[in-house]
Amino acid sequence: MGCEASEELKQSATGLDTSESAVKDSRRPDADLALDKGAVFLKDRDLLTGDKQTKTGYLLVDIELLSEAISGFVQCKYCSSTNCISVLENSNSRRGLACRLVLVCKNCGEEHTFPSSKYTNNGYEVNLRFVYSMRCIGKGSAASKVLCSVLNLPKPPTRFQKVTEVIERSLGEVATECMVEAAKEAVQENAGSTDIAIAIDGSWQKRGHASLNGVVTATSIDNGKVVDVVCLTKYCHGCVVTKNKVDHTSNCVKNFDGASGTMEVEGAVQIFKRSIEERGVRYSTYLGDGDSRGFQQVVNEKPYGEHFKIEKWECLGHVQKRMGNRLRKLVKDMKGQKLADGKIIGGRNRLTKDAIDLLQLYYGNGIRNNIDDINKMKRAVWATYFHKLSTDEQPAVP
Ligand SMILES: [Zn+2]
Ligand SMILES: [Zn+2]
């Protein structure tokens, strides 16, 4: 699994294309041209053998095999003897997964030490990548220890939390840059106007309305990119550990108190309130799903002053879905009850699951096909109703 992904990472990091296709391409007559362009960087040997040669990234290598291979191949540059170089790990030097490797000449005793990972401002790259990857698959320190011990790797970084913070900070910075850029792009696509239309949507970590964590996103309708996001959480581990005895206000992560159902409202308000300062735009149109509490609260807060009117758009998909939802609920509520004609609501030629799907489709089409004409839209929507109501004996007329 990781192999392809890391291959990509490596390629993007180095600009070298060592993929199979590049190797094949390089055997074409125009391969020289590609080499000139620097698009393909391969040694002559690779061209002859067609071998893939990877020059960057991480590998899991058995240190014993590495040592044997080097010993059998190289000559000591100090004493010129052969079969004398061992590769050892200086195990006192371990910093998480990073360590220092030593090339030692058994003959003359000369040594060369080098690190197993590049170093960044925030520690060894391999440790940052490791913690980041564990967080990406939703695992923490305990799972890391198991993974490393089974793979016979050094112990994972002990300061897991510290590294997580570094990664969180970096990701946060990158995310903000991207969102600021997306907002600028939306302005361009909106003919330069900084009053842009957004879709607001809230999503919860868990289904239902009992979730502790939620995220509310604002997506530009002009370019479909996320321009702002608010994460809300009702849970703080610190509060639980200290049982609220110690005041830890300064690093408390809890930022929301209230029913999970109102998270979207809170997120929407925050997004609107900071839009001018942080994104340089005003959100003039609010596209929301069926729940209009968020919109209502935003309007009440008047984020852009007394006179600025924020428009509400309904997402047609959601409006359409509501027709189906209501009909399905009706069938459920009427279960077992006899209607005026003595029959139940469901069954053959009655309000079946398929019939509901069809009614929902007609309803959506009635709106969609008459976007510019409200009267035609009304007629088209009601047409389905009268069509269904109508029988040969009792023709229904709108
Ligand atoms: Zn030597
Ligand atoms: Zn707390």
Quick summary:
This protein is α+β, with helices and mostly antiparallel strands. It contains 15 helices and ten strands.
How would you summarize the topology of this molecule?
Layout: H1 2-14, H2 20-25, H3 31-37, H4 44-49, H5 63-73, E1 85-95, E2 98-105, E3 111-115, E4 119-120, E5 123-124, H6 125-136, H7 141-150, H8 160-189, E6 195-204, E7 213-220, E8 226-233, H9 237-242, H10 263-273, H11 275-279, E9 282-288, H12 293-301, E10 311-314, H13 316-333, H14 353-368, H15 374-389
Parallel strand pairs: 6-9, 9-10
Antiparallel strand pairs: 1-2, 2-3, 4-5, 6-7, 7-8
Task: Explain how this protein is built.
This is Mutator-like transposase domain-containing protein. InterPro entries: Mutator_transp_dom (IPR049012). Residues 11-21 have a biased composition (Polar residues). It holds the Pfam family Mutator. The chain has helices at residues 2-14, 20-25, 31-37, 44-49, 63-73, 125-136, 141-150, 160-189, 237-242, 263-273, 275-279, 293-301, 316-333, 353-368, 374-389; strands at residues 85-95, 98-105, 111-115, 119-120, 123-124, 195-204, 213-220, 226-233, 282-288, 311-314. The protein is elongated and about 110 Å long. The protein has 398 residues and is of the alpha+beta class. The two termini are 61 Å apart. It has 15 helices and ten strands. One zinc ion is lined by residues 236, 238-239, 248, 252, 254.
